[in-house]
Design goal:
The protein has helices at about 1-25, 45-50. The chain has about 60 residues and is mainly alpha-helical. The chain is built from two helices and no strands. It starts with a helix and ends in a 12-residue tail after the last helix.
Amino acid sequence: MRQKTEIATILIILSLTCTAIANKSHHHSQYAGQEKRIIKSLSPDDIAELEQGKGWGLAKQQN
């Protein structure tokens, strides 16, 4: 019976330690949410072409 109590105690300590470590390492980026911002330097035509997957033709042609 004592062995089961020791194992249960160890598991509780491990779970609390893992939770504490996970909460400590969780951070928020200062850039969070900026993917929703409008890109002011792109014209409406540029945005439409990019959304259609056309791009700007800057990539090299495949041989």
